[in-house]
Amino acid sequence: MTTAGSDPNPQARFKFADLISSVPSFAFSALYFYTWVQPTAIEEKMVSYLTLVMVMEFFNVHSSVLIENVIIGESPPDQKARFIVGLGLFYTLFVGGISLAYGEWWPVLAFWGLTLNRLLGVLLGKHPTGEEKARMQISWAMSVFFYILGAGVTTVFPIPAFGITAEVVSRQEFTGGGLWELEPQTVIAFGFLYFAALGCSELFSYRWIPFQMTAVQKVRNRRGARSSQE
After folding, report:
1. Among residues 60, 69, 152, which one has the least CA distance to residue 108?
2. Does residue 87 surpass a pLDDT of 50?
3. d(C-alpha 104, C-alpha 81), whole Å
4. Which residue, 5, 140, 148, 224, shows the most beta carbons closer than 10 Å to its own?
5. In the prediction, which pLDDT does 219 show?
6. 220 touches 133 (CB < 8 A)
7. What are phi and psi of 45, to 5 degrees?
8. Residue 177: is it exposed, middle or buried by C-beta count within 10 angstroms (0-12/13-18/19+)?
9. pLDDT for 9
10. pLDDT given at position 158
11. Contacts of 222 (CB under 8 A, 6+ apart)
């Protein structure tokens, strides 16, 4: 039985902060879909740029798992800062190599912008609470899951080219011979699905995931138990 003020379906709710958080992901998803249909409307080499974004997203997801685990750890701030800088330098080797292959250096700047943003929080002494830790860990896990799932689906199933014709592909000046270079509609569809999935999950703050609710509830229960003891 529910009271007049209770929500019968709390998992379906979303907050204004969740909406704001989901906007960038939905914007990226829309950009990928628009480029899929009108690949040269914004920029002649937009397909190439968005392909590079998905390559960089792989490193972003991978590095975030390691860096954020450092942030939620119990090490002193100075030790965390050194470890984050070390990881950043390590991943710069890969990001720099990819950027060199594409002839674009903005991914290196973007990667270090994200790294320095995380580093700033550590230096300022910001430490997530137990509930924030649980939500952060779930968000990392789902980012990895969506990336692997999206890559698999767009590789296995045939993807329509829409506006990405052979002429459009030739303008991108790809130097490799992989699937994303030969049939770039696959990576564009991947980006559309991946960021759409992230946006939907962020909109509801991952509350639709049963084990996420369990993890957060455990934190709340422990907090309530400590309060009752005091």
Report:
1. 60
2. yes
3. 28
4. 140
5. 47
6. no
7. -105, 30
8. exposed
9. 46
10. 94
11. 130
d(CA 107, CA 89): 14
94: which 2 tokens? 């890969």
Tell me, rounded to whole angstroms, the distance of Cα 145 from its chain centroid.
Answer: 10
pLDDT digits over 41-71, tens only? 999 999 999 999 998 889 888 888 788 777 7
179, two tokens: 């699937």
pLDDT for residue 186 is more than 60: yes
For residues 67 and 88, give the distance between their C-alpha atoms in angstroms, rounded to a whole number: 9
Specify the amino acid at residue 144: V
Which of these ranges, 8-12, 95-99, 128-132, 158-162, has the smallest mean pLDDT? 8-12
CA dihedral over 83, 88, 91, 92, signed as positive or negative: negative
Q: Report residue 160: phi and psi, to 5°.
A: -65, 145
- pLDDT more than 90, % of the chain: 33
Q: Comparing C-alpha atoms, which of 20, 21, 39, 17 is closest to residue 191? A: 39
- Sorted by sequence, the CB contacts under 8 Å of residue 223 that are 6+ apart come out as 130, 131
Q: Which two tokens stand for residue 189?
A: 């569809």
Q: N- to C-terminal Cα distance for the chain?
A: 31
Average pLDDT estimate for 26-40: 95
Q: Would you state the structure tokens that stand for residue 51, as one six-digit string?
A: 């392909």
Closest CA to 43 of 55, 54, 31, 30: 31
Q: Say which residues have a Cβ less than 8 Å from residue 122's Cβ, sequence separation at least 6.
A: 71, 77, 80, 81, 84
CA distances from 55 to 51, 100, 111, 136 (A): 7, 13, 12, 22
Task: Give residues with Cβ within 8 angstroms of 168, minimum separation 6.
Answer: 39, 40, 47
